[in-house]
Design goal:
Order of helices and strands: HEHEEEEHEEEEEHEHEHEHEHEEHHEEHH
Strand content: 15-25%
CATH superfamily of the largest domain: Nucleic acid-binding proteins
Radius of gyration: 24 Å
CATH architecture of the largest domain: Beta Barrel
Largest sheet: 6 strands, mixed
Number of domains: 3
Structural class: alpha/beta
Shape: globular
Number of helices: 12
Distance between the termini: 33 Å
CATH class of the largest domain: Mainly Beta
Number of strands: 18
Mean pLDDT: 74
CATH topology of the largest domain: OB fold (Dihydrolipoamide Acetyltransferase, E2P)
Bound molecules: guanosine-5'-triphosphate, zinc ion
Length: about 475
């Protein structure tokens, strides 16, 4: 069984270049404009940068999985050979992925350093941290393997790119920095728009008196949230947070300085959670693996001053009690890119409650924006109504700008790409479906043709391979 090695990367590069060239010429052929944000007026550019690509999550529908990117369904249990295993991608670095797999027969977790199968790259199937994958060609001694296939994702957030996140922890501090209700609302609206379950926690509670905390609790309850209080400093509330995160993949979201890194470290060294040491989530790391080390709280200021162009590595840190925590506290500026004028109301529990309690269960107009239309079920006597107005206005301005610039206001119609050096680009989606199918057919064929030359696919059962079968089927 060959061990995937760095020499494989050399082998892939002409294929990838070839694909890139093919892609570029397709775009040119259609005379479609590629709009680059840098070309916007300074003011527009600024507001767009500020709204940069934050926490956009996709809830996948089966439609989004074309046969060009076939995935294993969550219930698939492929028969595994001795050199295959199923695992979770815990970190990605350059061309390697660190995958934690269950090794047979001991069933304990083992870290493997993996490359991604060339075919997956060719069909542009991105493997993300958090993905559940099938690893093959495993060398159990050298801890090497190759990612052969990916399972369907339940969710996908894009900044940082993590698959299968099933919990968002929105963390703020009561003081240092002071809890600011509008900023908190922005983060909550962004988090709600992903439709991933949320926990709201307030840190640094040892800095304020009991009365202040009770005040916040009542206030946040009226917003529809049940906040958890904690202090990394005094260890207050860390145990209940730990049990809240158990067995889930959690991303911590919150402004700079509230204590996200500190909390991650505290949770990972929590003695209560470590009762389960060498239990559920224990695995054997590769000697010298650095990605598992503690978050440096000292790195805070460097991180908050992090340039847009810096590459960020995301890793999922296993919690000893079970579950994972994403280690990139990267969400400092909610962009609200995924939120539309019509959907922003869905992110306010107060509005949802008023609609539910209304005798008709809705407003008189289906497209009611709840800004005083006749027959509107949303009444004005609630604290965050002004914030709702403010956000609605901001989103309206963005949608109008998109309409002028891209000829579409739906975020889903514009693709955002982080190009070289992190420059953000947007381009309209390629519209004509027929054309797309045509070129996809050609691409499928060229992938099938290319396969004969691929060393790393030689060991696979090409006849029965699910990905290849799907490509062939589509071309029939
Ligand atoms: N008083 C007090 N300070 C805390 C507490 N938790 C964290 N801190 C301090 O708050 C500062 C910021 O903490 P970090 O964990 O780096 O904050 P962060 O949210 O990761 O910040 P960014 O990395 O900039 O997003 C550090 O000086 C911590 O020591 C707490 O419970 N009480
Ligand atoms: Zn209404």
């Amino acid at each position: 069984m060959p061990i995937p090695s760095i020499s494989l990367l050399r082998h892939w590069s002409p294929i990838i270049t070839n694909l890139l060239l093919r892609h570029v010429s397709t775009v040119r052929h259609r005379h479609l404009p590629i709009v680059v944000f840098a070309a916007a007026k300074p003011q527009q550019q600024k507001s767009y940068n500020a709204r940069k690509n934050f926490l956009r999550a996709k809830q996948h529908t089966s439609k989004e999985y074309s046969s060009l990117a076939p995935v294993l369904s969550p219930d698939d249990k492929p028969e595994l050979t001795e050199s295959q295993a199923i695992g979770t991608v815990a970190a990605s670095q350059a061309n390697f992925m660190r995958v934690i797999v269950q090794s047979e027969p001991s069933r304990s977790g083992v870290e493997l350093l993996c490359v991604v199968r060339a075919l997956l790259k060719k069909i542009k199937r991105r493997v993300l941290v958090g993905d559940k994958v099938v690893v093959g060609s495993i060398d159990w001694v050298d801890r090497r393997g190759m990612i052969e296939n990916v399972y369907q994702r339940s969710t996908e957030i894009l900044d940082p790119p993590v698959a299968n996140v099933d919990h968002l922890l929105v963390l703020f501090s009561v003081e240092q920095p002071k809890l600011e209700p509008f900023t908190l609302t922005r983060f909550l609206v962004e988090a709600e728009s992903t439709q991933i379950p949320i926990t709201l926690a307030l840190n640094k509670v040892e800095l304020v008196d009991e009365e202040t905390l009770v005040g916040w609790k009542t206030r946040l309850q009226s917003w529809g949230y049940e906040p958890l209080f904690c202090s990394v400093e005094s260890k207050y509330g860390i145990d209940s947070l730990a049990s809240n995160l158990r067995d889930q993949t959690t991303v911590i979201v919150g402004p700079s300085g509230v204590g996200k890194s500190s909390l991650i470290n505290a949770l990972r060294s929590n003695p209560r959670a470590s009762d389960a040491v060498e239990g559920d989530n224990w695995f054997e790391p590769i000697l010298g693996s650095k990605w598992l080390e503690d978050q440096r709280v000292g790195e805070v200021s460097t991180r908050s001053g992090r340039g847009k162009h810096t590459t960020r590595h995301v890793s999922l840190l296993p919690l000893s009690g079970g579950g994972y925590l994403a280690d990139t506290p990267g969400f400092n500026q909610p962009s609200l890119m995924k939120v539309t004028k019509q959907s922003v109301a869905q992110a306010f529990p107060e509005i949802l409650k008023m609609l539910k309690e209304n005798e008709h269960g809705k407003c008189a107009f289906n497209d009611c924006l709840h800004v005083g239309e006749p027959g509107c079920a949303v009444k004005g006597d609630w604290e965050r109504y002004q914030y709702y107005f403010q956000l609605l206005d901001e989103i309206r301005i963005r949608e109008e700008f998109q309409l002028r610039t891209f000829g579409t206001k739906r975020e889903g119609d514009v693709r955002f790409k982080v190009g070289d050096m992190g420059v953000q680009q947007a381009e309209p989606r390629l519209e004509p479906k027929k054309h797309r199918r045509q070129s996809r057919k050609k691409m499928n064929q060229s992938i099938l043709d290319d396969l004969d030359d691929d060393d790393d696919d030689k060991d696979l059962d090409l006849e029965n391979d699910p990905i290849l079968r799907a490509l062939r089927n589509e071309n029939q």
